[in-house]
Amino acid sequence: MGPAGWLDRGRRALYTWWERSAVPRRRGADAWNPFREWRRGSVAADMQHFLRMDDSWGAAATLRRHLSERLPGRLFAGLSDEALPARLLERCPEERQRILAEADALCEGRFDLLGYRGLTFGDPVDWHLDPVARRRVPLLHWSRINPFDVTLCGDSRLIWALNRHQWLVLLGEAYRLTGERRYAERFEDTIRDWIRVNPAGLGINWASSREVAYRLVAWCWALVLFWPAPVLTADLVTLMLDEMRLHAQHIERYPSYGGTPNWPLTVEASALFYVGCLFPELRRAAYWRRKGQALLERHILADLSPEGRFGATSTSHHRRMAEAALHMLVLADRNAVPVSPLVRERVRGLLHAALPLRRPDGLMMQVGEAEADGEWMLPLLPRHGADWRGLFAVAAAVLAVPQYAWAAGGLSSEVVWFLGTAGAEAFDRLAPAPPDSAVFEEPAPGGCVPMRSGWERESHQLVFGSFGDRADAGGEDPLGIQCATFGEPVVIDAALSGPAGHREWQAFIRMTSQRSTVLIDGLASGARPSDQPARRAGRPRAVLRQWCRNDRFELADADDEGSRGLPQPVVHRRRVVFVKRAYWVLIDDVQGAGRHRVDLVFQLAAQRAQLDASLWATVWTANGPGLAIKPFADLALRGTIQDGVHETAGRAEQRQPVRTLCYSAEGEAPMRLVTILFPLRDERAAPPSVTPFADDRGRLSGLTIDDPPATILYSDHSITVEAA
């Protein structure tokens, strides 16, 4: 840690000490003066005129009147577009209906959070309660609370998800669409009650600056969405604005420095930029805007290469960075804040780098850490973390890129909320088009290798591995696969495809057979026995050795040393061969010595699966297409299909069906398993005839396939595909 880091720690410690001593007396009878920080412009002089006459109501009314003339023009264009309700009804009726349905449930006190459905927190809402664990966090200074102490807090993330108040934005959208007073009344009750029972600096809801930032961004949107509502009186506006100032002050004092990539600091920078743009009359506004913009631009330029590769092996981090960058670009344009053209180019590169992971059905393959409910900075419409369509739609309208319009699959409500009618028209002027080529030269977000037959709705796609210094972050398997055939997902990663994506779920599932990977002695690739020390930071566990292609096949060759911690260490090498862009061959080599059990596991998204006596497995999706799977080995194999139900960290309310195909063998290393993955259009299609053959040592060295006719030859050093 350098001098700047020690200075920051000292500053935080000083602020914490001062707050602890000041909190007991902060809310004294004469302590609250919400107007003292409004130091700029004519509004300050006008308010002071009323304050000298001890007329706080007149000062509050002056502030509200001043902001009424300016605030709608400072946020996003859609929020001041009177044609927005009609435009959404015409262009996005299904999304409009989803917003209203969500808002109705919220008015009834039912919340969908972190995979739970219909949670209730009491009436009135208990803002410090985990209703699942039945734990209520005491109202202590935030620095005295360990939010990850489950005996004290239960699941702090569940409490935080409620207190982010992102659901207030849905209420605001519903109010703008219908004008119904009940949405505004629920908003007013929420704001007044929350401020009353969450004094600044006290309680778990101030224990994370990231959570404070999420709430601040949501309040910025909610304030403007409800601005025309009669319930938004001058006193409520004044109360809310002063609380927003305290939020920004807390973020400034306690930034989340440390970690790469640093998403908490990114969302905190976004919140400061928001407040600095919306309320330039505040004394600290200019500093907050400059500080937020500088941090965001630094992260964009430092964490992204010119091609858009992000520092973390996680598509969720990639998505969140793209979201924060688009918020900054649109808000900067709205407030005439200059942004470097280089930043805009890097944002384009970031989004372009993600296109190879778009599944044929419009969702995204996920690699690396998956956050609960996607963890969007501002979900204008509830979306899973794999659903980037709204993000791509906004990017298409802002950056005028046809490929993003294609990835979006059509206009989304987010475009209208962000950019108004003009944004919808800009989107419509684009001619959606897929990328020029389905051949990729660089790994996609998450450090993975994408392979696909094309960009059509019925194309094939496979994503392989997660490579780099952070390849074990978030619980992903560094040599795992996910694939789709004829546009339908078939082989998935259960840790990333579940509804909640809790870290406990990822940590549990990575140690089990519920992964599309190879298990050695019962452990997933990269998992380690509990008595083994963790891998030293900065040392890549999985390495992509080769990624090449010719007119007959594409090859990705990688190995993983994550199993060196076993009593008899081994190295797992996996080669993925995409033959004629029609089917895949997996070549798994377990290199080392000693006797080991090897399990070849495929986690299936398919609805139906069957395994015959010859070990051919056929799996079928609900919409028809499927996949034929057949392994070959130089030792005896046995196969099973297991059906079951998994719970997220033991939570019965988050159960999901699971179907797992597993091939097992036991023998002396080195061992080789060769598996063909052959797409099937429908149930009338039959798997091909495949004949393996071995070299002089009896080791598998090739396959002959009858339809389409081909011979695949492989050794430790080369792979050849010969057409018959």
Automatic annotation (TrEMBL):
Q: Name one GO molecular function term.
A: lyase activity
Q: Supply the Pfam families for this chain.
A: Hepar_II_III_C, Hepar_II_III_N
GO CC: one term?
Answer: periplasmic space
Instruction: Give start and end of each Heparinase II/III-like C-terminal domain.
Output: 477-667
The keyword Lyase is annotated on this UniProt entry: yes
**Keywords associated with the record:** Lyase, Periplasm, Signal
Q: What is its main location?
A: periplasm
* Localization of this protein: Periplasm
Query: Residues in domain Heparin-sulfate lyase N-terminal?
Result: 104-336
Query: Domain of life, per the record?
Result: Bacteria
Q: Which InterPro entries match?
A: Chondroitin_lyas (IPR008929), Hepar_II_III_C (IPR012480), Hepar_II_III_N (IPR031680)
Q: Which PANTHER family does the entry link to? A: HEPARIN-SULFATE LYASE (PTHR39210)
This chain's protein is named Uncharacterized protein
